[in-house]
Each structure stands twice: as structure tokens, then as C-alpha cells.
Specification:
heterodimer, A: about 210 residues, mainly alpha, B: about 270 residues, alpha/beta, 2 domains, 10 helices
């Protein structure tokens, strides 16, 4: 048996031991996992960003453009001392400004405009006189009721009338169905992770499978 | 029996409900859903030597769920003789993606740099997705192993998304949202997603609106994909265990509610 398999078995059993009660073996495995994740990410960032994007162009190819991001990056570290924190503001402003500039139009297009278009498209199909199946029409109507009622639920400054209250309650039912489906999928997802570990223990370690 | 012991008993029952079906394995793959079939068909319709970009956007913790999906999709790509470009926008998924791609490439005797390439990790996923829309070689001057990409045969006719026929994001989080917002909206990329089951509900609206061309999720999605490929991988192997363990969870929920109902009734009296 390979050493890596044995280490993985010990760590898996140590993590599972938490199901009985909290214990030092579980703590040890948990700390190893966190340490490894952080260490791996740091090495990846060093190898795939710092070296090819900064150190190599700056020191080997003498491309001085790299000084700008280097200085901006260094000023970010000034946040660790309160009296120097103001020097980090230009770099932060650049990050927030460019981030917002990039993401706002993209999010608006992908999450609002395209979704709205998809919500009303079936009605445009009706308008064009296209032949639609009974099930498609039913699902179209249910979708529309769901979209409108869920939006009304999140409209907090609405007038408190009976009609709007009942539309809002309908929205709650739609939201509950969504949360229920998501919860069901999440349980499935977690069971799959357990299946993966059991396949490893029974197959790779015990060779039963 | 106190609550702690009941909890431990439930853990034990779930453990057995997973372990025993794995030992007495029965193939339980059911009907293939329309979403998985659509995803399969989109890859099936690609011409041989088309470019498939696979983004390994997951962390090590979800490997049990994404590995069968990734392996099935890569197997399909190799059977169709597609040229595969692997990238990763999550640091942890980088090594795993390379491992999976190399394994399938070895099985099909693919030539590195000609039939497939693994470019590795780039941080700041928004910048990386946008930069690949301008030039993949400029964003990745070197591949995961440090080889210069500009001289690789696969990049002779591959500059940016215009030459990529399909992008598949294999993800355990919200990364496909960024692919949708930046690659689909701006560069009109054809995007398909293979997700962990817990993320599926978040992406069905994108599938309905046509922003995503295909979606498959979880172990069930992998099992369905494997049955379309007529092969048996991690998806089909795990379906029986998943069905039994899910049934046990449902029974435990029902039993818990019944016990709680009678406890409350006793208190009311």
C-alpha cells in the first residue's frame, strides 16, 4: 500500500471521529487540512502570478511597467498600520472602481435583462401565434405567477392591502419550494461526498470493491 | 436513549446505508433527464478537432462529486477527438484538473500540445475570463508545466474564444455565473456547466434563458452521462448507494417528525 493512501485513510478516520465526539485527532486533521489549503494556494499564487507576472518581467526582462502594480500592491500592506493606512486608498479605489465598472453592466445584462427577456419570451411566442403545448402554457403561467409574487414579497414599501398581502404570501410559497429543492439537492450532495470517502476506504484501502 | 446516542445511531445507519450498497453494487441509472441529454448532444454535435475548453472550477473538498462528471465529459471529448484546453480558476482545482486530464489523455494516447493542453491556474477570475477573450496565449504565456504556449501546435489556430467551440465549467460554486456574465454576455461563448448537486437550482434559470447551453449536476448527472456514453464510472457505481442512503434520510426525517408530533401532543395533554 502506498504511503499517500495510508495518510489519507488516517486523516479520513480522524475527521469521521468527530461524529462520536470532538477529539484531538479530529483537531489535528482539521488543522492539517487548513494549513495545506493555505500553503498550496500560496505556492500556486507565487508560481502562477508573482513569478511570471511580476518578478520575471521586472528582474529578468527588465520590463519596468511591473513597478506600478508592485507599488500599488505594497501600499495595500500599509493598511496593517493605522497611521499609514491612507496610502492604501489609491490602490483600493482602483480595485473597487474597476471592479464595479466591470461587474455592474455585466451583472445587469446577464442577471436582469436576459432573465427578464426569458420570462416574457413565451408571451411573445403567443403574440406571434406560435403553436404551444398545453403543458408549456401551464408552466409559462406558473412561472409568471412565481416571478411576480416573489418580487412583490421583496417589495418592502408596498401598501398594506389584502390583495398585495395574498400575492406576497404566494411568493413565499414559491420561495419555499425553491429552498426545499435546494435543501434536497444539498443533502444529495453531502451524501455523495460520504460515498466518495466510503469508496476510497472500501476500495483503495480495504480492496473490497 | 438520549439525544446524543440517537444521533450516533443515525450516523451508523447512514454509514451502513452507504457502505453495504457499495459492496452489493447494482446499476440503478434511471431515465436520462433532458438537461443531461442536451449537454451530451451539444458535445456530440461538435466536429472532430473542435476546441473544447474545460475549466476546472472546484476545490478538493468536492472531488467525490465532480470527478465522475469531469471524467465522463473528458472521456466524451476524447472519443469525439476534440482538442481540449484545460484551465482552472480555483487554486485547489488546478492539480486535480491536471490529474484528470492527464489520466484520460493517457488512456486515449493523446499528444500534449497537439490534442490537449493544460494551462493551469489564474487568480482574479473576472480578469482571467476577460483576458482569454482577447488572447489566450497572452493570458497564459506558459502552460501549467512552464512550457511556452506560443509555439504549441494547438495554438496555431486558437487565439481567443472565437475559435473555442464550447466551454465547459466543472464547478462546485458560483464560478459559472462569472463565465455567464463575462464570457457569454461579452464574447457570446457557448457555455455548458457540470455542477455539484447543491448548486443546480441556482443555474436552472440560466439554462431556461439560453445563457447556458447544457447543465448536468451531481452523481445522478454523472451516472446519466455515463449511460449515454455506455461506460461505467464513478457516477453509476455510486447511484445505488445514493438511492439507499437518501431513502434512509427520508425515513429518518419522517420518523423524527412523528416522534416530535407525539412528544408535543403529550405536552399539550
Amino acid at each position: 500500500m502506498e504511503m499517500s493512501t495510508l495518510v489519507a485513510v488516517v486523516c479520513t478516520l480522524a475527521i469521521f471521529s468527530f461524529l462520536y465526539r470532538d477529539n484531538p485527532f479530529y483537531r489535528m486533521a482539521e488543522h492539517i487540512l487548513i494549513g495545506l489549503s493555505v500553503g498550496f494556494t500560496l505556492v500556486m499564487l507565487y508560481n502562477s502570478v508573482l513569478v511570471p507576472k511580476l518578478l520575471r518581467p521586472l528582474f529578468l526582462e527588465v520590463d519596468l511597467w511591473g513597478i506600478i502594480p508592485l507599488l500599488l500592491g505594497l501600499t495595500m500592506l500599509a493598511r496593517m498600520k493605522r497611521s499609514l493606512a491612507k496610502f492604501s486608498k489609491p490602490a483600493l479605489a482602483l480595485m473597487i472602481g474597476s471592479g464595479a465598472g466591470l461587474s455592474i453592466p455585466a451583472m445587469f445584462e446577464a442577471r436582469i435583462l436576459r432573465q427578464l427577456a426569458a420570462s416574457v419570451e413565451p408571451f411573445a411566442m403567443v403574440g406571434r401565434g406560435e403553436e404551444l403545448s398545453f403543458i408549456f402554457i401551464c408552466s409559462m403561467i406558473i412561472s409568471l405567477i412565481g416571478v411576480i409574487s416573489a418580487m412583490v414579497y421583496f417589495f418592502y414599501t408596498r401598501p398594506d392591502t389584502k390583495l398585495i398581502g395574498s400575492i406576497s404570501r404566494t411568493g413565499v410559497y414559491f420561495l419555499m419550494i425553491f429552498f426545499g429543492a435546494t435543501f434536497g439537492y444539498t443533502v444529495t450532495s453531502r451524501l455523495t461526498l460520504l460515498i466518495g470517502r466510503m469508496e476510497f476506504l472500501l476500495g483503495d484501502f480495504l480492496s473490497i470493491l | 436513549m438520549n439525544a446524543t446516542n440517537i444521533r450516533r445511531l443515525i450516523f451508523l445507519v447512514i454509514l451502513l446505508a452507504v457502505a453495504l450498497p457499495l459492496i452489493f453494487n447494482i446499476d440503478l441509472t434511471g431515465r436520462v433527464t433532458d438537461e443531461t441529454r442536451q449537454m451530451f448532444d451539444n458535445i456530440e454535435m461538435l466536429q472532430s478537432h473542435s476546441i473544447l475548453m474545460v475549466s476546472f472550477d472546484f476545490e478538493a473538498s468536492s472531488i467525490a462529486e465532480v470527478r465522475p462528471l469531469a471524467e465522463a465529459i473528458l472521456e466524451h471529448a476524447c472519443r469525439k477527438e476534440l482538442r481540449v484546453v484545460g484551465v482552472s480558476l480555483f487554486a485547489e482545482g488546478t492539480a486535480l484538473g491536471e490529474q484528470m486530464l492527464a489520466q484520460v489523455a493517457k488512456k486515449h494516447q493523446l499528444q500534449y500540445g497537439v490534442d490537449y493542453v493544460y494551462l493551469g491556474f489564474r487568480p482574479q477570475y473576472v480578469a482571467a475570463i476577460l483576458a482569454m477573450g482577447e488572447s489566450i496565449v497572452d493570458e497564459y504565456p506558459a502552460d501549467y508545466f512552464g512550457n511556452a504556449t506560443a509555439v504549441m501546435p494547438i495554438f496555431r489556430d486558437l487565439k481567443n474564444y472565437n475559435q473555442v467551440d464550447l466551454v465547459v465549467s466543472i464547478a462546485d460554486g458560483s464560478m459559472p455565473t462569472y463565465w455567464t456574465e463575462y464570457a457569454v454576455a461579452r464574447y457570446d461563448v457557448n457555455l455548458e456547466v457540470a455542477l455539484t448537486a447543491s448548486m443546480a437550482t441556482a443555474f436552472y434559470p440560466y439554462l431556461s434563458s439560453g445563457q447556458i447551453k447544457g447543465l448536468t449536476a451531481g452523481l445522478k448527472g454523472a451516472a446519466e452521462y455515463e449511460s449515454l456514453l455506455d461506460c461505467k464510472g464513478g457516477g453509476r457505481r455510486g447511484m445505488f448507494a445514493q438511492s439507499v442512503s437518501q431513502s434512509v434520510v427520508i425515513l429518518v426525517i419522517i420518523a423524527g417528525n412523528v416522534v416530535e408530533y407525539f412528544n408535543r401532543r403529550r405536552k399539550w395533554k
